[in-house]
Amino acid sequence: MDDRSSLQNIIECLIFVSKQPLTIQEISEFLKDVEKEEITDALSELQGRWEEMGRSFILSSVAEGYQFRTRPEYSQYIVEFNKEIKKFRLSKASLEVLAIMAYEQPVTKIEVEKIRGVDCSSSVSMLLDRRFIEIAGRKEVPGKPFLYKTTNLFLETFGLKSLKDLPTVKEIEKIKEDLKESG
Predict the structure, then answer these.
(1) Euclidean distance between CA atoms 148 and 63, whole angstroms
(2) What number of other Cβ atoms are within 10 A of residue 178's Cβ?
(3) Tens digit of pLDDT at every position of the chain (183 positions)
């Protein structure tokens, strides 16, 4: 086994045992003698190897880190096999609140309510309970309301590398048009 393969195997093990997506920084802090560029290259090669194998798992880049995930096309089998795993569902109201917070963060509840035009207390509470959002401080205005932002769990759940992967307004409009045309 050469050094390159050995490094890939070590990184693969670390990602496999990590409870959350492992960032390049975290790997670098653990493997002090290895340059970040070597880690980045090894991760890229690992992703390619897992993709080429065509296995049920892939090495995915999510939440600014790396994590092994099952391929989405097998999700129905996992759900059926393990009845305790329930398909993730959010109400339309909660999705709207989450989307506003993702695009406008950090944002207060009042600012979200101004955009939606209705109270969003229960959605904010539910999103906090599910750890999709967190308190990011207080806004320096009278009353000092809480500011909210999305969490890494939000990125993990929605398969996003970072907030930069959120669709643009133009992309959303295109999706809407495509849906109208398809029926």
Answers:
(1) 18
(2) 9
(3) 468 889 999 999 999 999 899 999 999 999 999 999 999 999 999 999 999 999 999 999 998 999 999 998 998 888 777 765 555 678 999 999 999 999 999 999 999 999 999 999 999 999 999 999 999 999 999 999 999 999 999 998 888 989 999 988 888 888 778 878 876
